[in-house]
Amino acid sequence: MEQTEKIYDVIVIGAGPGGMTAALYASRSNLSTLLLERGIPGGEMNNTAEVENYPGFKSILGPELAERMYESTMQFGAEHVYGDVKRIVVDGDYRIIEAGKKSYKTRAVIIATGSYHRKLGVPGEEQYNGRGVSYCAVCDGAFFKGKKLAVVGGGDSAVEEGTYLTQFADVNIVHRRDELRAQKIIQDRAFKNEKVSFTWDSFVEEIKGDGQKVTGVVIKNKNTNEITEKAVDGVFIYVGILPQSDAFRDLGITDEEGWIITNEHMETAIPGIFAIGDVRQKLLRQITTAVGDGGEAGNRAFAYIEDLHDRLAAAEAAAETAD
Ligand SMILES: Cc1cc2nc3c(=O)[nH]c(=O)nc-3n(C[C@H](O)[C@H](O)[C@H](O)COP(=O)(O)OP(=O)(O)OC[C@H]3O[C@@H](n4cnc5c(N)ncnc54)[C@H](O)[C@@H]3O)c2cc1C
């Protein structure tokens, strides 16, 4: 593995809204800052249609907000390189970040790797992924103009993205309960939309296709056990999220499900390792909360490095005196 020579003050892993904000705060504090990202900067914002709850914008497309955040983040000298981080090794006061064939040395690291969509785990889901099965309305919605879609789930993402999809298609939301979990304003919008219908108390048991693309879903009503087959051209799945934290599990900083545990200053149990945004154990996973976490972590990383410098300088002075 090739280790880069430079020693960074801070390495931020993941360039979603949390990671970008952390990099902005760190670089603006004059810390040498590296942003490592394995995809396109923006994280989940790139998969979001419209954002209506980020202050400053009445409404903005997710990818546009991502681009604007990236521009403002990079203005203070942070570096950004591609990297898929597989491991963090603690080496005294240094943290070594392993990403593919390269490793990077840093004093502090901020983990901002977000979360990913839970799968339904039913027959047909893998086979038709990308051929009618999707987890991203903004990416794939336009392929379904004039078609029929099933959206699975009852939370914010399912109902919001389901409503968004009605600009292209008729949408049936299949939910395992008899009421939605989504915020009231999102529910009201869906109930008022004539192109949204609901199948309550039901599970999708199978996604059917013709070998090439999705043709329908098999649905079971949990109260009556009745099985019905509904003809649809696509299935959008929003049934929960899981943390992107496999690379950090051996550090012992996660809970049983893999969410990273921090205090209110975004500090994990390991000094110099911070975690922010959706990957963190917390209640509200939003752009605003990721951004707030990022500001706090960037600021605390600065304080941590100041302390570290003071500690090293004091140790050096003590050693010289002893000589
Ligand atoms: C469909 C949908 C709609 C949403 N709508 C809204 C909304 O309207 N308003 C709102 O406030 N929130 C919304 N959210 C939630 C919001 O997008 C997230 O809460 C927010 O993006 C979390 O930010 P983050 O920085 O923690 O993580 P993410 O945005 O998930 O970014 C994490 C980044 O880390 C990178 N990464 C992961 N692992 C590694 C690794 N090992 N090495 C390198 N890079 C890695 C990923 O590629 C990604 O770019 C929505 C989410 C979804 C899925």
Automatic annotation (TrEMBL):
Enzyme Commission identifier(s): 1.8.1.9
Under Gene Ontology molecular function, one entry of this record is: thioredoxin-disulfide reductase (NADPH) activity
* UniProt KW keywords: Disulfide bond, FAD, Flavoprotein, NADP, Oxidoreductase, Redox-active center
Q: Which GO terms describe its biological process?
A: removal of superoxide radicals
Q: Which domain of life is it from?
A: Bacteria
Asked whether the UniProt record includes Flavoprotein among its keywords, one would answer yes
Q: Which cofactor does it need?
A: FAD
What reactions does this protein catalyze?
[thioredoxin]-dithiol + NADP(+) = [thioredoxin]-disulfide + NADPH + H(+)
Which Pfam family, just one, is annotated for this protein? Answer: Pyr_redox_2
Write down how the cofactor binds this protein: Binds 1 FAD per subunit.
Domain spans labelled FAD/NAD(P)-binding: 8-294
> Could you state one GO cellular component term attached to this entry?
cytoplasm
Per the UniProt entry, the signal peptide is: none
- Keyword Oxidoreductase among UniProt keywords: yes
Q: Subunit composition?
A: Homodimer.
What the record says about family reads: Belongs to the class-II pyridine nucleotide-disulfide oxidoreductase family.
Name the NCBIfam families on file. TRX_reduct
Full protein name: Thioredoxin reductase
Q: Which organism is it from?
A: Trichococcus patagoniensis
Which taxonomic lineage is given here? Bacteria, Bacillati, Bacillota, Bacilli, Lactobacillales
